[in-house]
Amino acid sequence: MCAFGKTLFSASLALCPEAAGAVDEYRLDDGIKESGIGVQSPSANSFAWLNRFVVQPNHETITAVRLAFGAGLAQPNIANGQPVTVYLWDDISQDGNPSDAWVIASAIGTVQGSGTNAYTTIAFSPPVTLQVGRKFFAGAIINYNGQVLVGSLDTDGTDDALPWPAALHSFVASSDNGTPVDPNDLDMAQGPVASVSSAIFGGSADATWMIRLNAPPPNTAQLDIAPNPLDFGNVVVGTNFGPLLVMLRSVGTATLDVTSISAPVLPFWAPPPGSGLCPPPPFSLAPGAQCAVHYSIGPTALGPAADVVDIVSNAPSSPDTLALQGMGISGPAPQPTITPASIDLGEVDVGDTSLDIPITIGNFGTADWIVHGFQVTNPSLPASPFVVDTLSCPPLPIILVPGGACDLVARFQPYDHGASARTYELVGNTPPGSVLLTLKGKGMLFGDGFEVP
Description:
6-stranded antiparallel β-sheet
C-alpha cells in the first residue's frame, strides 16, 4: 500500500467485543476493526485521521468524539495514556473533501483501550451545535515517536444496525519530519490529506476509521464511563493496588443527574463518595462536564475477581454499569501485626489528655508493609476524641520491611462526658479492614469523679 511520502502499515486483528458505552449517533464502522494504521518512522511522527458526516435533523449538537486505537493486542499499538486531540472540522466548500477543512471545535484526551475494540470518549465542553444538512469532518491528530499502530480501520463494513456508507468517507494526513499536522491546513501536511482508499489502498479498496460521535436528541442526558471495564491486572494476594480513576462524563444534550452509585464488594472497594472528584450522590453534570471516582483492589484469594457497579441517573440507559476485574496471584506480601489491637484509655476529665499508650506494629511477611494513614472506619460518627500518632515509627508513610517493627502512640482527649469508642484502620498496601485498632475511653466531669448522668 502507498502512503504519500512515508510508509503506513496495517496489522490483522483478533476480534474482541466492544466495551459498553454511550450511544453513537454518528458512525461509519461496525464496531470490529480489521486493521490499524500508523506512520512508520522511528522519528517524530504526526498522524491525522478523520471521517466525513452530514448533520442530521434532531442530532445537531455534538457532545463527544469516540475513538478506537491501534490493532490487535499483540501488535505494536500506540501507548495508552498518550495525549490526543479530537476535532470537528467544517467543510468550507461543502465538496466533501477536507483539503479546505476548518476547525470549529477541539478537545484533548488520552489514548485508552489501545489494541481493543473499546472506544475512548473525549467530550466537548461546551457541546457544539451544527447546521442540519451541512457536511463536516470529525477525527483526531496525535504526535508520537516510533513505529506504532494508531488509527483503527473497519475494512469489511458489515453492520446489522446501519447500512455501510458509500465509499470515500474517510481521510488521512501525516508527517514524519517532526512537523505536526496543522489541523487548519491538512492539505499542507508532508503527506497531504487524501482519502483512505487512495492513500492506503492505492484505489483498490476502501475502509472507514472507527470514529464515532455522540449527538443525542435535544434534552437527552447521557453518561459515558471510562475506562470500562476497569482492569487492575495481576495483584499479589494480601496486597492492595489502587486507587485507579474512573471518569464519569456527561455526553448528552441535557444535564446528567446521578442519583446513586452502588458500593463494590470485596476485594474491590472505593473511598467514601466525594473523596474523589465526584461529590456524593446525588449530583449533576452539565453537558460536556466530567468527574472521577476511585476504586482499589485487595485480593484475598488466588484467581479472578469481578464485580459490577450500578450507576443510576436520568440517562435513558440507566442503570449504567461499570465492570471491575482483576486477578489474585501469589507472591511476596506483607503480614502485618498490631499489639495491642484494642486499648481502653480509661477515665479522663473533659478537656484533659490521657497518658500516651504505645502500640507496636510489625511486619512478618515477605514484602514491605506501607502504611499511608490512620482512618476511622465509621466517618459518619462525630469527631473522634482519640489521636493516633507515630512514636518510634517514622512519619507517614511508614514503610516496614519484612521483620521490621516500630511503635505508634494512642491518646484520649474527651470533649464530652460519657463513653466513647472508635475503630481505626491502618490504611496501606494490605486489603481493606485487615489491620484494625479499637480505642475506648470515658469522658468525666469534675475531678472528684462525679459524672453527669
